[in-house]
Specification:
The protein contains 10 helices and 12 strands. It is α/β, with parallel strands linked by helices and about 325 residues long.
Length: about 325
């Protein structure tokens, strides 16, 4: 069992497969020219499998593959197949562009849950956000995932002045579709030019939803990172991840393994532990994992309080989102 000094048991591992992506979302990737990590610095298929097995032996029950865009890795099918044999819940977060090419592999690996990132339902705005003209393909692949009855969530990063006017349209998707829309408060990372006045908070999202809908709260599950809601009579539901306005760190059970093999105990943590180099050198890995988790801060990586309006982004120490893993 992997437990921190606050008694939080960590049984959920997020593994980033790559920092490469076939989109260029401005809040995830720095706008300046970005140098992707060379393949030699990334975990290879067998190294990912070895580390995943080690975490599973210590009680990890769920693994989520992220990126970058995890499905752009050429060996993604092999990685997914290996992890699908570990007897854990396997999930993936993707921009949705390659789902049609990978659907057979995902089904064979018993992937039960897919999160697709989609911040707008407008084609022109999609191009503005992602800098790629692939909106129609993402929409088709959302429909494809629904046809295969995969548990589907749509991740929507809400930014004031950009897409908060689409909140009601996203909720309307839950009328006839068995999916969950997850509204995510805009968070600060290296290079994404975050400012507090861009954050559209949980309470603002709920007020916007109430303009059209009666909404009812749904029961919370242990370790939930979101607050869940439903419009009565609608098939699907929606949720809000309120990292900035109402953090949920007290029940955190998550660990993050970056594509270059660094363990982060929090999305906002300064410190990292290099598991990949240790693995390649034949060193003991378990003590490194436990030390890393023992150093986990009580909340938000120890970098800022829950008062997001006072955050000094220049003082934050972290990677860009694409190098951490979404």
């Amino acid at each position: 069992m992997i437990q921190d000094r606050f008694g939080r048991v960590h049984d959920y591992l997020r593994i980033s497969l790559t920092d490469h992506c076939n989109l260029r979302c401005f809040y995830c990737m720095p706008e300046e020219k970005y140098a992707f990590a060379p393949a030699s610095r990334l975990m290879q298929t067998e190294e990912i499998n070895t580390l995943a097995k080690l975490f599973v032996s210590q009680g990890v029950k769920k693994i989520r593959l992220t990126g970058g865009e995890p499905l752009v890795r050429k060996d993604a099918p092999e990685i997914i197949a290996c992890l699908g044999q570990l007897g854990i819940e396997l999930a993936i977060t993707t921009n949705g562009i390659r789902i049609d090419e990978m659907m057979d592999e995902l089904i064979q690996a018993n992937v039960k849950a897919i999160n697709i990132s989609l911040d707008t339902l407008e084609r022109e705005k999609f191009l503005k956000i992602t800098r790629r003209d692939l909106f129609d393909r993402v929409k088709r692949n959302i429909d494809l995932a629904l046809q295969h009855q995969i548990r589907l969530k749509i991740n929507v990063v809400v930014m004031k002045g950009l897409n908060e006017n689409e909140i009601l349209d996203f909720i309307e998707l839950t009328r006839d579709n068995r999916l969950e829309i997850r509204f995510i408060e805009f968070m600060p990372f290296s290079g994404n030019r975050w400012t507090s006045n861009q954050v559209f908070t949980l309470q603002e999202i709920l007020l916007k939803a109430a303009e059209r809908y009666e909404i009812i709260p749904l029961p919370q599950e242990p370790n939930d990172t979101s607050k869940k809601y439903k419009v009565p009579g609608y098939i699907g539901s929606f949720a809000v991840i309120s990292t900035m306005s109402e953090p949920f760190c007290g029940t955190c059970n998550r660990m993050r393994l970056t594509a270059d093999g660094k363990l982060k105990n929090c999305l906002f943590s300064k410190g990292e532990t290099d598991l990949l180099t240790a693995l390649r050198n034949g060193e003991e890995i378990l003590p490194l994992i436990q030390q890393n988790i023992n150093e986990k801060a009580k909340a938000l990586g120890g970098q800022f309080s829950g008062v997001f309006e006072s955050i000094d982004t220049a003082a934050l120490e972290n990677r860009s989102m694409i190098t951490i893993g979404g």
